[in-house]
What we know:
Layout (H helix, E strand, L loop, with lengths): L1 E5 L2 E6 L2 E6 L10 H14 L7 E6 L3 E3 L4 H6 L4 H20 L4 E5 L2 E3 L1 H8 L2 E5 L3 E3 L10 H8 L4 H10 L3 E2 H6 L5 E3 L4 H13 L3 H15 L3 H15 L3 H12 L9
Parallel strand pairs: 3-4, 4-6, 5-7, 6-8, 7-9, 8-11
Antiparallel strand pairs: 1-2, 2-3, 9-10
Helix pairs in contact: 1-3, 3-4, 4-5, 9-10
Amino acid sequence: MTSESDSLLLVDNLDGVTTLTLNNPAGRNSLSMAMLQALHDQLVGLADDAATRVVVLAASGKVFCAGHDLKEVQGQLGSTPFMLSLFELCSKVMQQIVNLPKPVIARVDGVATAAGCQLVASCDLAVAGETARFATPGVNIGLFCSTPMVALSRNVSPKHAMEMLLTGEMISAARAEQIGLVNRVVADSELDNAVAQLAGTIAGKSGHTLKIGKQAFYRQLEMPLHEAYAFTSQVMATNLEAEDAEEGICAFLAKRPAKWQDR
Length: 263
């Protein structure tokens, strides 16, 4: 089933995988207020959408996302309320991705810069075409990429994050894979197949289990080691009370495919 929630954002669902496609190639798929609002609205709906097991973020054209719309920003220079609302909405969308009870995969074809790089870093997984490139170039125009820094610094080591932030230089897809910004790099011609295979593999798991695991992953990251083990021990004990855990164990021992109920 395919639909269009907004001309800026295309929505497609197939076999449990919902693809959100940034659809403003003429504007380099920038995160304007309108684009951010469209993403926000879709993510709200997807949180409880039983037909969606995995979300893919993609983009039309040769640029994945060039960050904020600088023309829009220029037109509002001096308006602190607008700037705060812009960055607050952007931050809210990034947190929606992290908090979404479904895995989110970035399909990166082309350039991802500034808040566009932040968007990639906010996703749970990322697959990039070999010609994709990444940067946090705010320093080049006198605007340090402070909000993109939050997601970036939680995905790569501090020194790699600082190098990107302080130089503003573009890095290749291969380098992005080396430092952990993306999971894998494939030939541009194989990007769709690689993303579909990864999304399909994940979509075949218990939705209930994926929700539990994703939530626990991000919560334990911020905990001291002993608290993380105490927390995840409780998570696993509770997880074992779920119908899907019982089904999965029985299916494994019986050497048959599991039939998930997502509960």
